[in-house]
Task: inverse folding
């Protein structure tokens, strides 16, 4: 079992419910793989190598649960799956890298869409764990609404 996210190039509907409804269609769009996805994957694998780049004895330590990652790239979306044990370390870098390139990150596990048009520098930290970077106002409200007695959010600017 792995933790999956979908990286999408614009445009993505501004309304999250509409974006979620269109997600599978975005994944299935056929066409050439945009250079932007190649650039994104190159930045990711420079820090967290693809399992296809690792020696045989290091594959069990890989961040990614499949490879080569370039095979996961499509025309409108790239699907990435990572080991649950590495999510806390890798996800903030993945989101930041994608958003810096103007890409959207759709996180099925949290139900959040990390948009590149969020407020730069505004991040959400819960119980010392950075959960969201470059929040939109809507994401901030949704995250606070989801909070339970398990933790209180602190917003860092």
Result:
């Amino acid at each position: 079992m792995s933790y999956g996210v979908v990286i999408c190039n614009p445009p993505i509907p501004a309304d999250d419910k509409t974006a979620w409804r269109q997600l599978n269609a975005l994944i299935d769009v056929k066409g050439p793989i945009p250079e932007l996805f190649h650039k994104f994957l190159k930045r990711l694998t420079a820090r967290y190598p693809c399992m296809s780049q690792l020696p045989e004895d290091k594959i069990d330590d890989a961040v990614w649960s499949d490879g080569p990652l370039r095979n996961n790239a499509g025309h409108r979306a790239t699907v990435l799956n990572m080991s649950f044990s590495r999510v806390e370390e890798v996800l903030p870098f993945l989101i930041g890298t994608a958003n810096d390139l103007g890409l959207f990150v759709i996180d099925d596990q949290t139900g959040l869409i990390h948009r590149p048009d969020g407020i730069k520098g505004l991040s959400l930290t819960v119980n010392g764990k950075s959960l969201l970077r470059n929040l939109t106002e809507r994401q901030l409200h949704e995250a606070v609404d989801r909070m339970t007695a398990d933790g209180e959010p602190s917003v860092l600017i």
Q: What stands out?
A: The first strand starts at residue 3 and ends at 8. The radius of gyration is 16 Å.
